[in-house]
Amino acid sequence: MSAATMRSRTPDRLCAEAVDMARAEAVAAAGEAAVGEHLGAVADGDRVVTHSFACLEPAYRGWRWAVTVARAARAKNVTIDETVLLPGDDALLAPEWVPWSERLRPGDLGPGDLLPTEADDLRLEPGYTGEDLPPPDSPLSEEMEERVAAEDADVTAGPPAAQPSPARASGTLAAVATELGMGRARVLSRYGLHTAADRWDESYGSGTAMAQAAPAACMTCGFLVPLTGSLRQAFGVCANEFSPADGHVVSLTYGCGGHSEAAVMPKPPRPAPPVIDETRVDPMSLRPDRPGDGPAENAAPGEDAAPAESTPPAEDRGRS
Fold it and tell me: Region Disordered: start and end of each range (predicted)?
């Protein structure tokens, strides 16, 4: 048996000698192949000792099996208390737990997911502060309170379409404010505006490789759809289906090869008209298989060939 490791008290002799019993319990829990050599024993109390065995599992490097044995007062039998797997000083441990709000990354939100926004989110600021309170008899005050309460309510179960929303009567000031974009409980703060601008400029800005090789910037492109408000001075939306930034917010200094004025498409070449030489006549034989039907080969140009002398048949030659 290996030497026992002691803390503040001396281990009980019978419990410290129960190495085989502790090892058998560890083997029963993890298997023979997962339990290694005995690492030592520690006294946890009066007649309470914990035996440690090396863990041979590749996924638990540096861990140890801890089997605690105990003995009752004036008893000679040692019993098993518990068996656990504990990490050592050089054990491989999982990273510390991180809240979901810090683990969330862009693109993680899927269909049907709800993302609560913290009340003190720096990206937002109150859109309705109550500084300009309407008169007591105004229909805007009570309705706006209901809308603010609905914005600050806790997230409930169910899809967003099933969530209750305060009624907005047509023709009221609240309905007009909603159409103008002024009826929101919170709006984008300057900090949220700047962080969004930095994020967009990093993805589709002048520092990207595409913009460095572009023939011109987006501010002169006909496919750019300008934004409203202060963002109009620096950003727009690309509407070129062949551009890699189609449908994305792009910086005015961004650019790509799909610029509307990048190049003029050349017109297809027009074939040359046919050339007809009217100064020369090429005689053609109507019956090339019959000799004598064609023109004389040695005839001078411009002169008609002399007709060939006909030879009378043999019968006519005898009569003459």
Answer: 104-169, 260-320
pLDDT mean over 154-179: 59
Residue-by-residue DSSP string for 187-250: EE-HHHHHHHHHHHHHHSSTTSHHHHT-SS-GGG-TTEEE-SGGGGGTEEEE--TTSTTBTSEE
Per the CB < 8 A criterion, the answer to whether 53 and 26 are in contact is yes
Can you give the pTM of this predicted structure? 0.42
Amino acid present at 303: E
Q: One-letter amino acid identity for 247? A: G
Torsion angle of the four alpha carbons 239, 240, 243, 249, in this order, in degrees rounded to the nearest 10: -10
Q: pLDDT, tens digit, for every residue of 173-210?
A: 666 666 666 667 788 888 999 999 999 999 999 999 99
CA 291 – CA 158 distance, rounded (Å): 102
Provide the CATH topology of domain 13-87: Nuclear Transport Factor 2; Chain: A, (3.10.450)
pLDDT of residue 228: 85
The CA dihedral of 164, 166, 169, 173, to the nearest 10 degrees, is: -150
Number of helices and strands (H, E) in the chain? 8, 9
**Mean pLDDT across the chain, nearest whole number?**
77
How far apart CA 239 and CA 222 sit, in angstroms, is 9
Q: Which runs of consecutive H residues, i.e. helices, occur in the chain?
A: 13-16, 19-30, 100-103, 139-152, 173-179, 190-203, 209-212, 314-319
**End-to-end CA, the chain:** 155
**How far is the C-alpha of 159 from the C-alpha of 174, rounded, in Å?**
25
Query: β-strand 48-55 against 63-71: which pairing, if any?
Result: antiparallel
Q: To 5 degrees, how large is the angle CA 16–CA 3–CA 84?
A: 55
**Domain residue ranges in the chain:** 13-87, 120-131+143-150+170-188, 190-251
